[in-house]
Amino acid sequence: MPKLDFDIITLGHGSGGVLTNKLLDSGVFDLLTNDILEERHDGAIINMNEKIAFSTDSFLVSPIFFPGGNIGELAVNGTVNDLAMCGAVPKYLSLSFILEEGLKMTEFWEVLVAIKFACENANVKVVTGDTKVVEKGKGDKIFINTSGIGNVHPKANIGKTRIQIGDKIIVSGNIATHGMAIMSIREGLEFESTIQSDTTNLNHTIINLIEQFGNDIHLLTDPTRGGIATVLKEIALTSDFGVDIFQRDLPMDDQVASACELLGIDPLYVANEGLFLSFVDASIANSFLEVLQNDKNGKNAKIIGSVVDTHPNQVILESSIGGKRVVSMLPGEQLPRIC
Question: Residue 67's pLDDT is what?
Fold first, then answer.
């Protein structure tokens, strides 16, 4: 067993930040290392006569019903989107439940119906699965695991190693919406709000962009746990370049901004579930943005920054008033049980 910096698992180990990376680096990636796993992307691209993308994820959001969705559609959309970030056309899902004794059947049925509609919207099929039940008090109503597989689009060439100096970074819509939708109904943090989660499938949007811009799309990734800040920092740390982003260009709903300010939460670190970041060649950035803004999932898309050859391994945010600060990973958990 490797020497670890901690004796027990804490909520912070699920944050997507420093503790998560320490846990993965000292355990999972060391013990299970292989060239595919070391890509550390949202899904794995596997050569099996043709390129296949494969991804898996677990969902334990609390509460299981939230404004704009529930844990069922979140599970489908999350795995579908991870495959889409690989440039793949999602085809099949596995679906596994861990149910807590005492869960109301009406609630389970509502989750199942949401799964059905999410699959239809994404044009994927659940083809295998499993169900387990734990004693009352040993779970939290329902946990879901989904795995997905799909064919990589022939025009897709997605990977961190393809990022180049000068690439533009585009976010597909308003940030921090999902996380603040959850926080708006958490016990002790309730406030007047109509914020709804942005959970949705992005695969149709992504495939349309790949068909039009193909090789000029260098990387796609969805900023779920840990938000935009964590994703950009992870990318910068594993490269020889830096990233500049600009606060004035970050799209955010006014209610979300107010909620973040009220709760003292930095929106850069808040989870998103219907959002993606694109690293694209500067020559096609404006055309890419125009196409994306004409899509229902990209109407609020913005160019938020670029890849630079200064300050390697660092993400620098320029504030609305011109100041600059280094964007770091969260040392612990900001919003537990968010997805």
Answer: 92
